[in-house]
Specification:
mainly alpha
């Protein structure tokens, strides 16, 4: 028993040492695969230890991975949120740890969906919207319907969904950009439930047409 305690303590010390080194900015890398990721990362980070959107795309392309602009934007946005960085342009970058996760996720996604990463979307036939595979997360609920100036999402829907530990996609954001069109479309097509709320403070014509379309398309709303 004493022997195993000693082994366990050594292992715990080694883990703590690795964490301390990472916090000091010293990257300890184990394994040929992770080392190759680090070599690629450092090839494009210009010595800064981070990759912005353009650098990230070039690094992924060098590994024969070709995400869309919206996927790259989603990676940058997710990294900023996970690290608790302020929601502005200066926070839109990924660290080496983020980079490893995204590379692995893309490779797994290509493998799972039977895709060749060297094929572009334009070169492959398009599937119907509700059958199209996506590399983005699948949400429980898509919050469609009336947007500004309504606040039903923030005031009612989101607190309730969080209470029941349900995931959701909220298309009503302050810092909207064109890259979010594809992200929103993928979230909508992969959500388990489409929730459309229509308020009398807006005409909601587009939302009504969209809800009717998805209803006819046999999606749940």
């Amino acid at each position: 028993m004493a022997f195993w305690k000693r082994v366990s303590s050594w292992f715990q010390k080694d883990q703590r040492y690795i964490i301390d080194e990472w916090e000091r900015g010293n990257k300890l890398v184990y394994g040929a695969l992770t080392r190759s990721y680090l070599d690629t990362f450092q090839q494009f980070d210009e010595g800064k230890g981070i990759l912005d959107g353009k650098q990230l795309l070039k690094a992924l392309n060098s590994l024969d991975l070709y995400p869309s602009r919206s996927q790259v934007y989603n990676m940058l946005k997710t990294s900023a949120e996970c690290h608790g960085r302020p929601d502005d342009e200066t926070a839109m970058y990924v660290t080496f740890g983020d980079f490893c996760i995204y590379v692995s996720d893309l490779i797994d996604g290509y493998s799972m969906h039977g895709c060749d990463p060297t094929f572009t979307a334009a070169a492959t036939p398009q599937s119907p919207p509700h059958h199209r595979q996506s590399l983005t997360s699948r949400y429980d609920v898509f919050l469609g319907g009336s947007c500004n100036p309504t606040t039903w999402r923030k005031d009612t829907a989101i607190p309730m969904l969080k209470h029941y530990s349900l995931t959701f996609y909220n298309p009503q954001v302050e810092d909207w950009s064109p890259e979010m069109i594809e992200i929103e479309d993928q979230a909508k097509n992969n959500a388990r439930l489409l929730l459309f709320v229509l308020e009398d403070s807006t005409r909601s014509i587009a939302s009504m047409v969209e809800a009717a379309f998805h209803s006819g398309d046999k999606m749940r709303y």
